[in-house]
């Protein structure tokens, strides 16, 4: 029987729109491609989620690596970048509240930088106050799909894998959860997620 529902944040509960953000800043397609490569698609970006860099520290590092792009990098990663790139998705929020009303325990398991998470936790306190527990990668210094972060969630809150359902947009992250006995839904859209959720809970 499913008792616990675990939500990822980016692209599940939150829109994540870095490319649209670059377009809004007025960069043409070629320049936006270059900045996506330098900033958001850079392998070092995941080190923010791992808690190795803050965003300002990351900006310093990649400005040194890409000096020709430094001015634009600092503009893109200015103080308000999180508010421009990450916004709650109303249909997902409605689904979350419905899950909560139906009596399921709700948790967050997300790869997220420490400073940026602290910001949205305050900004969107009305949402986070409804969550029964959270495991954030930068706090634990480990990122999905490393099994250690799933064990952290299970052990911290006493969750039984077979009673737990995880919703994430990344197939690798869901695969890692399933390998531990946790039920999983790969999030591709809210309507599909709802249908899969109802199927899983009806079978458990």
Description:
The chain has 204 residues and is of the alpha/beta class. The protein has 2 domains: 130 residues, Rossmann fold (3-Layer(aba) Sandwich), CATH 3.40.50.1000; 68 residues. Helix content is 54%, strand content 14%. The chain has 13 helices and 7 strands. It has a 5-stranded parallel sheet, with helices on both faces. Helix 12 links the parallel strand 6 and strand 7. Helix 1 packs across helix 2 and helix 4 runs antiparallel to helix 5. The longest helix is centred in the C-terminal third of the chain and has 14 residues. The chain is elongated and about 55 Å long. The model has no long low-confidence stretch (mean pLDDT 97).
Give the helix/strand layout.
Elements lengths: L3 E4 L6 E3 L1 H7 L4 H12 L4 H5 L5 H11 L4 H7 L4 H5 E3 L1 H12 L3 E6 L3 H10 L1 H4 L4 E4 H4 L6 H11 L6 E5 L2 H9 L3 E4 L3 H14 L1
Parallel strand pairs: 1-4, 1-6, 4-5, 6-7
Antiparallel strand pairs: 2-3
| CATH homologous superfamily label of the largest domain | HAD superfamily/HAD-like
CATH class of the largest domain: Alpha Beta
Return the CATH architecture of the largest domain: 3-Layer(aba) Sandwich
Question: What is the overall pLDDT average?
Answer: 97
The end-to-end span amounts to: 4 Å
Number of strands: 7
A few lines on this structure:
The protein has two domains: 4-15 and 86-203, 3-Layer(aba) Sandwich (Rossmann fold), CATH 3.40.50.1000; 17-84. It has 13 helices and seven strands. The chain has helices at 18-24, 29-40, 45-49, 55-65, 70-76, 81-85, 90-101, 114-123, 125-128, 137-140, 147-157, 171-179, 190-203, and strands at 4-7, 14-16, 86-88, 105-110, 133-136, 164-168, 183-186.
